[in-house]
């Protein structure tokens, strides 16, 4: 225990093994503070001088309690209960009152020794503040889940697990409740967006895409097979089949269709049917036309697991990772095969095919094109060798991902703006897009996975998923929360660009929309400046990782007319990247001084690193998920 100024300060820290108890008083030389990291705290810049013995403070407090009745004078001039209720305390000895308050705060600080925080802490009991040391430890929390790869990655980066609310990142295994978002602090991150079921539930995804196809045109949203939500759309399905096939009987062959529960995952409850009588009339399922002409490799059907993360819905910011998985069926494809063995032919889910004796498990992460599971890079290499335009296939997949999130953006953005405003909480989410290529190499969206599986059953799984997780945390910046730059300087530097995308001036043809400029709400310049700065910071952190941004992008103007709600921040982000394309950041802003003012970095050619990025964990650090 040391005394600083006229306050009591407690320093529980492994570097200071001395933990005082009431009644013991160390001198100024009892422990050395010369090299203690907490010396950077403002409270320790005052002179160190001794205080009177705390027993005198205790006696003053006891005396105050005894004299309380005498110190209370009735305002009404009467005595008794009625007069005492309207009385105000009149303490004549100001010094005793100050000492008593110091003692009360001192007792509260002493309680820290009973439950040490595990961090160097300086408690200023007069100002009722606690100062963290210059080298804090970041905490993470696992809630309703136990993902080993996430825990191992964070702990390898120096995070510590906590069960309290003092965390920097929370990894939750279910849909996030509004109460959690409302109590979050601005520096905290959580791995789900509110109402993310709009894209992950099969019925909601079908509903949102069908709505957009009706409003914006079916040629824009024709990337999912013909789908019906049952039992709500059973009569619609029956009418369509009668138009094609005539009178329907239970034995009428309707062609292959696939049935999936509306809210299931990992291949549970999936069936392939081809007769009208096999369509369920009860139960909440979705019925989709089965794609019976898939692109085959070595005679096997396969699908792609694309990892996507969304860091913002207002404005929309979508990133796709270069690493992914290619999952093969374990029996050669035959379109007319039905029965129990058909699931190993028509379904590519790993959770189903791993039970087939023909499943080939990958045993070496260096072999990326062997077994029943490949890496995405291995697939692109194979397609290039076959003369396929991989760039076009990737562009088509990116187009599907962007339009999928545009279809759900109004609902999720509204919930996020209400519950997870940037001043209260920071959300992000990792999605798993399942894409199927048909015989013409046209990609089709099968489903979007909420909380895609991060289990590492094979060395290849560990290699891919650990890279995705570590790159995600690096791009978020949770490893090194930095104090904000000078707001006035930042706002001045970005004003030049914001004026270029103001609704008072016409946009280029790339940003023409169906909504007249005069009818749009005026953008908030402060918000637009903040969004542009955040976009640039993410670009800096993204360098060196496997993430690439697909929206906003320099050619993102072609998507702006598809948004149901026109947001100036989306237009500003696209315009910002369009000006940046073909030149440096300095050229986009008209000078290097503006770049420094906007970003706070003097050299925009290199990625600034206050701390090393999060590294992916090795196989020896991760156990198989339970």
From TrEMBL:
Gene3D superfamilies: ATP-grasp fold, B domain. One of its GO terms (cellular component) is ciliary basal body. The keyword Zinc does not apply. It catalyses: L-glutamyl-[protein] + L-glutamate + ATP = gamma-L-glutamyl-L-glutamyl-[protein] + ADP + phosphate + H(+). Residues 60-83, 502-529, 605-626 are annotated as: Disordered. InterPro entries: TTL/TTLL_fam. Residues 60-72 have a biased composition (Basic and acidic residues). This is Tubulin--tyrosine ligase-like protein 5.
């Amino acid at each position: 225990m040391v005394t600083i100024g006229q306050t009591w300060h407690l320093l529980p820290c492994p570097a200071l093994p001395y933990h005082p108890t009431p009644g013991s008083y160390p001198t100024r030389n009892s422990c050395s503070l010369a090299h203690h990291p907490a010396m950077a705290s403002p409270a320790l810049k005052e002179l160190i001088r001794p205080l009177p013995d705390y027993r005198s403070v205790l006696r003053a407090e006891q005396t105050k309690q005894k004299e309380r009745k005498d110190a209370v004078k009735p305002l009404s001039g009467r005595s008794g209960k009625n007069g005492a209720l309207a009385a105000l305390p009149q303490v004549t000895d100001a010094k005793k009152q100050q000492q008593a308050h110091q003692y009360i705060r001192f007792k509260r600080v002493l309680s820290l020794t009973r439950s040490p925080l595990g961090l160097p802490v300086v408690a200023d009991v007069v100002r009722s503040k606690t100062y963290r040391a210059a080298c804090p430890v970041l905490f993470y929390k696992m809630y309703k889940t136990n993902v080993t790869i996430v825990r191992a990655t964070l702990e390898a980066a120096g995070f510590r697990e906590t069960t309290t609310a003092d965390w920097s990142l929370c990894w939750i295994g279910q849909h996030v409740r509004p109460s959690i978002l409302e109590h979050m602090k601005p520096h905290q991150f959580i791995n789900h967006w509110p109402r993310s079921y709009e894209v992950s539930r099969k019925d909601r995804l079908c509903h949102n895409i069908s709505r957009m196809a009706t409003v914006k045109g079916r040629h824009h949203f024709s990337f999912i097979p013909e789908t019906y939500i049952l039992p709500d759309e059973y009569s619609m399905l029956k009418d369509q089949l009668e138009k094609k096939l005539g009178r329907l009987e239970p034995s009428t062959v309707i062609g292959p269709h696939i049935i999936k529960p509306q809210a299931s995952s990992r291949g549970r409850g999936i069936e392939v049917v081809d007769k009208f009588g096999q369509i369920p009339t009860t139960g909440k399922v979705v019925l989709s036309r089965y794609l019976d002409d898939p692109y085959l490799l070595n005679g096997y059907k396969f699908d792609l697991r694309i990892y996507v993360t969304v860091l913002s819905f207002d404005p929309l910011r979508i990133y796709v990772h270069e690493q992914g998985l290619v999952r093969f069926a374990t029996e050669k494809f035959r379109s007319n095969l039905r029965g129990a063995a058909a699931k190993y032919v028509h379904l590519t889910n790993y959770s189903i095919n791993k039970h087939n004796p023909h499943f080939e498990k990958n045993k070496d992460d260096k072999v990326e094109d062997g077994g029943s599971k490949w890496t995405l890079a291995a697939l692109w290499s194979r397609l290039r060798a076959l003369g396929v335009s991989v760039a076009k296939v990737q562009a088509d997949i990116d187009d599907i991902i962007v339009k999928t999130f545009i279809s759900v953006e109004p609902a999720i953005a509204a919930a996020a703006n209400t519950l997870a405003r940037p001043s209260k909480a920071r959300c992000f989410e990792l999605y798993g897009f399942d894409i199927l290529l048909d015989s013409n190499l046209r990609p089709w969206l099968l489903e979007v996975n909420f909380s895609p599986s991060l289990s590492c059953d094979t060395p290849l799984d560990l290699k891919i998923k650990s890279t995705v997780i570590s790159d995600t945390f690096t791009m978020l910046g949770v490893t090194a929360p930095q104090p904000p730059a000078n707001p006035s300087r930042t706002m001045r530097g970005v004003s030049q660009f914001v004026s270029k995308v103001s609704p008072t001036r016409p946009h280029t043809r790339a940003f023409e929309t169906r909504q007249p400029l005069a009818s749009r709400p005026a953008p908030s310049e402060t918000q637009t400046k903040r969004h542009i700065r955040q976009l640039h910071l993410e670009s800096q952190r993204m360098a060196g990782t496997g993430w690439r941004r697909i929206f906003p992008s320099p050619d993102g103007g072609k998507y702006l007319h598809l948004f149901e709600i026109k947001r100036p921040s989306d237009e500003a982000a696209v315009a910002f990247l369009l000006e940046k394309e073909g030149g440096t950041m300095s050229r986009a802003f008209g000078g290097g001084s503006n770049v420094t003012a906007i970003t706070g970095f003097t050299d925009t050619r290199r990625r600034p690193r206050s701390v090393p990025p999060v590294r992916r964990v090795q196989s020896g650090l991760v156990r198989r998920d339970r």
